[in-house]
Design a protein that fits this description.
heterodimer, A: four-stranded antiparallel sheet, four-stranded antiparallel sheet, 2 helices, B: Rossmann fold, 5 helices, P-loop_NTPase (chain B), transport (chain B), magnesium (chain B)
């Protein structure tokens, strides 16, 4: 075995070792989820050298340099980091927007709309690259296949989902079978599968290449409004439902693997953390819960919010989670040790419906019914910036992978790009 | 609660005692003013709706989820987005807009032909009765051909959305004519 080169992975921090074994080029990923501004890179390099036979004495200096670059990356934003300014207002949708998504590079973004289209935008120029037309009703949910980003998946109130080529706007497959609106969908990590969740109480799994249905996941007794593949293997799928439960499914069988019960109200969102060891769920019962994904047991219930919890997300390194609530606040919790509340973000004058971390984890982005989005310091809870200008409530928001661009989508029929 | 999640909540097939009302009509008919009047909100600052508004109102023991959809010509083709699970259709007519009586009649006729709205009770608000040039409700009914409707119950109610005259009477009819749930 011989080490060929190091590759850096910024979010979450990690390195990939590319090496030669019996004439074959292979790679091995090492997560460095604890890396932060205080990390001693020399010590860390030594630790890795001791643990990992591929890392030899000769490359230790080089490794240390790589770690230094990664460390800078985690520092480059945050309280003293960049400020965002309105860069483009995208206004060609004729009706309110729904959900939005960036591609991996942050060069393109997607917007879904009540006008039954999904549009592909060039972020740099603000030009509309393609309009994906074909759905017969509201396009509610949109997404790229990561990391390739050469396919788009849309879910619509017309009860179907579609797969598109974003370059040509050609619809490659229509995923039929649901008897209710498709309100959540996602590609698997490998991009070969697509999952959909519907108001018809089921989730479905489809083959991306043929558009054929593989499984229907039955078990929920109310609408399935959130789902996610596990980010690593892509063999597990979690779904959140208005029936108040979360289900875990396996892509190889259609029986339910387990049910996470405990919430007293509708689930509003459900997420895996980076290494898929944890599941976070938010509920209209006013609480958020953390679950052990393997044991299917509840690890913690956080109930700091005084009203419905509308969204939940983990940071990229899976160390913290954030929640958004009708009580006009967002909160950040530690998920690695004691589930302590780390920060409370107060200032919005309307309910907070979406929350996401910046890729490096220094900032939290929130979207609110008060027509503003805000950027917060995740350590102090202080508001760093208010992104104002939308004429209607903001339905969704997202950070680009590089952390240098933000999109916000509003009921005012426009989408704004901030840089 | 607002936001996208609220839209999903309101999309659910309605439980008992909860109704989905769809408010349609040409632009400037007074739909949003009517919606605000129902919700007892200030009606002085209403701008054209380039999308939709949703409000929940309690009336006669029912929770009415009222969807007010913009009426401008370019967004009328999207009215169909909102038809699913509608319990009552409310159509608002500006009775002083003589020039567009035919247009509003055509739009209504198209709605009544749609499969998803089959059998859904219809309430027509003959709005803007405070204006001197307004036609009375009976003449509006004539123009719209309401007497020819055979496949659903209907009612026409004269009203002034800006001051609330007649609005309550219309809602009482709505609550009395709720279709039996499937």
């Amino acid at each position: 075995m011989k080490l060929l080169r190091f590759h850096l992975r910024y979010h979450p921090p990690g390195i990939t070792l590319e090496y030669m074994q019996k004439g074959m080029v292979k790679s091995k990923e090492i997560d460095l989820l604890d890396l932060n501004a205080n990390t001693n890179t020399k010590e860390l390099a030594f630790l890795l050298y001791q643990k990992e036979p591929l890392i030899t004495e000769e490359v230790r200096d080089q490794l240390e340099q790589c770690l230094e670059v990664l460390k800078k990356r985690t520092e480059h934003e945050g309280p003293t980091g960049k400020r965002f300014y309105i860069y483009k207002t995208l206004m060609t949708h004729v009706l309110p927007l729904t959900n939005v998504a960036f591609d991996k590079t942050g060069n393109r973004c997607l917007t879904g709309s009540y006008d039954r289209t999904c549009k592909v935008w060039d972020v740099e120029s603000g030009k509309e690259m393609q309009t994906l037309t074909g759905h017969q009703n509201v396009v509610y949910t949109v997404g790229f296949n990561f990391p390739a980003c050469n396919r788009v998946l849309t879910g619509s109130f017309d009860k179907s989902a579609r797969i598109w080529d974003p370059e040509t706007a050609e619809c490659l497959a229509t995923l039929w079978g649901h008897r209710g609106e498709v309100v959540t969908c996602q590609f698997s990590a490998k991009g070969d599968l697509a999952a959909t969740g519907s108001m018809d109480h089921t989730a479905k799994l489809f083959d991306v290449n043929t558009g054929a249905e593989i499984h229907t996941y039955n078990g929920h007794t109310a609408e399935v409004i959130a789902l996610q593949f596990d980010p690593n293997e892509g063999q597990r799928l979690i779904t959140g439902s208005f029936d108040g439960t979360i289900s875990i499914w396996d892509t190889r069988v259609d029986e339910r693997v387990s049910v996470l019960r405990g919430h007293d109200g509708e689930i509003s969102n459900v997420q895996f953390n980076w290494d898929s060891s944890l599941v976070g769920s938010s509920s209209l019962d006013g609480s958020a819960k953390l679950w052990d994904a393997r044991q299917s047991s509840c690890l913690a219930t956080v109930s700091g919010h005084t009203d419905e919890v509308l969204d939940i997300c983990f940071d990229w390194a899976g160390q913290r989670m954030a929640t958004a609530s009708s009580d006009c606040s967002a909160r950040v919790y530690d998920v690695k040790s004691d589930f302590k509340e780390l920060a409370v973000m107060k200032g919005h004058r309307g309910e907070v419906s979406k929350v996401c971390f910046s890729p490096a984890g220094g900032c939290l982005l929130t979207a609110s019914a008060d027509r503003s989005s805000r950027i917060w310091n995740t350590t102090t809870g202080n508001c760093i910036q208010v992104l104002s200008g939308h004429q209607g409530e903001i339905f969704s928001c997202a950070f680009s992978y590089e952390g240098d661009a933000i999109i916000t989508a509003s009921k005012d029929n426009t989408c704004r790009i901030w840089r | 609660m607002m936001g996208l999640l609220n839209i999903l909540k309101k999309l659910r097939s309605n439980p008992d005692k909860e109704l989905r009302l769809l408010l349609l009509g040409l632009d400037n008919a007074g739909k949003t003013t009517l919606l605000k009047q129902l919700a007892s909100e200030d009606v002085n600052h209403v701008t054209p709706t380039a999308g939709f508004n949703i409000k929940s109102v309690l009336s006669n023991g029912f929770k009415l989820n009222v969807w007010d959809i913009g009426g401008q010509r370019k967004i009328r083709p999207y009215w169909r987005n909102y038809f699913e699970n509608t319990d009552i259709l409310i159509y608002v007519v500006d009775c002083s807009d003589h020039q567009r009586l035919e247009e509003t009649g055509q739009e209504l006729a198209e709605l009544l032909e749609d499969d998803k709205l089959r059998g859904v009770p219809l309430l027509v608000y003959a709005n803007k009765q405070d204006l001197a040039s307004a036609l009375p409700a009976s003449e509006i009914a004539q123009h719209l051909g309401l007497h020819l409707i055979r496949d659903r119950t209907w009612q026409i109610q004269a009203c002034v959305a800006t001051d609330g005259t007649g609005v309550k009477e219309g809602m009482e009819w709505v609550c009395k004519n709720i279709p039996a749930k499937k």
